[in-house]
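Lab manual, section 2.4: Encoding a predicted structure.

Procedure: take the sequence of the chain (351 residues), apply the prediction step described in section 2.3, and record the output as structure tokens. A sample record is shown.
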Amino acid sequence: MNLSAYDIAVSYEENYRNGPRLQETLPPVAFKGRRVPFLGYEVNSLLGIPAGPLLNSKWIIAYARLGFDLLVYKTVRTTARPSHPPPNCMFLEMDQQIKTPDSNVRLIATLTPPGRLEDISITNSFGMPSRDPSQWQADIGVAKRGLAVGQILIVSVVGTPGVGDLADDYARGAAMAVEAGADMVEINLSCPNVVTKEGSIYNDPDASSTISKCVKESIGAVPLIIKIGFVANTDALAKVAAANAKHVQAISSINTLSFEVVRRDGTQALPGPGRLRSGVCGAAIRPCALKQTAQLAELKRLNKYDFSVIGVGGILTPDHIQEYFNVGAEAVMSATGAMWNPHLARQWAGG
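Recorded output:
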């Protein structure tokens, strides 16, 4: 199995400076055929990478050349914040996929990868680090200039509790992203790897819609996407969708699932306070992610919402991409798959 473009053996900072780790250089994926519409843009494809793997402009440009056309710049803040200490990412010993998340289950982490790409499940915990805005704004400009025609730059933004009103902080970050050159803004309402409230807002219809409304007023005509986690209760998901529908142009679903993760000897896998629970992604979460994508697509149909549905979670092969389109996704994004299989877009395009 190929090495990951993100080196899990070293720190986030080393990956930021030196990544991505790509084993071979191939010519850029050539655009074939007709462009397709996505939130007011004409794009080469409806395949992209969600917030997470694309740490800076070097990562954005590298994956753009590999044929991913919807590129989400890793989540930024209005104030600098360091990453959690390494390790930040480990494989999981999974003998089955997670179909009904049980928060009381403990998962086993390992440094040994599975034998097959399509079996990769990982845990990751970064804590949504961010450079200072002056740095990430300049870097977003570099990333934007590195894209080809038919590719778009989406910037993920999160608010930080304690720096003022949370909705206002989301809005300030979003406005900074647009000023820097973002084609679209995604607000992250769903990170399981922080211990403050910005990681679980997606569960609250009122709080999430207050933020999405404030952000939309701040960025005007620029398309707004919200990133949500898994909502186990169908009625609760319907309330979240209804509350946000009039403010957003797309809902991206899902982020990782949250579980307690330990080593085989029972000790906490990822060191530090508040990190016994961490995000789980990859093959393990695909059933939950597919289910929620289908639910959002059905809610859109029944209620005639005009937001688009972006499917995310456990997409490791071209067949997985098609599964998401089959259940109603209008765009698809791969994180874990793109990390271990950088040529996924090339394979999807048939080139």
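Check your result against the sample. The longest strand covers residues 70-76.
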